[in-house]
Design brief:
Blueprint (H helix, E strand, L loop, with lengths): L6 H14 L3 H5 L7 E4 L7 E4 L2
């Protein structure tokens, strides 16, 4: 089924599968080392964070 999907959708599905299986190493491989995370809110986790 994934062969029929857009390449970006395939990456997302691989990420969901890895997360669901608790395979954080496989999930980490899907992100760029310099990924930027934008976290909303007003707490200690809020703000922009670079890296994985």
């Amino acid at each position: 089924m994934m062969g029929d999907m857009h390449p970006n959708a395939q990456v997302v599905m691989k990420g969901f599968q890895a997360f669901g299986e608790g395979d954080m190493a496989a999930l980490k491989e899907l992100f760029a080392e310099d990924a930027v995370w934008h976290t909303g809110g007003r707490n200690k986790f809020s703000g922009d964070h670079v890296g994985i």
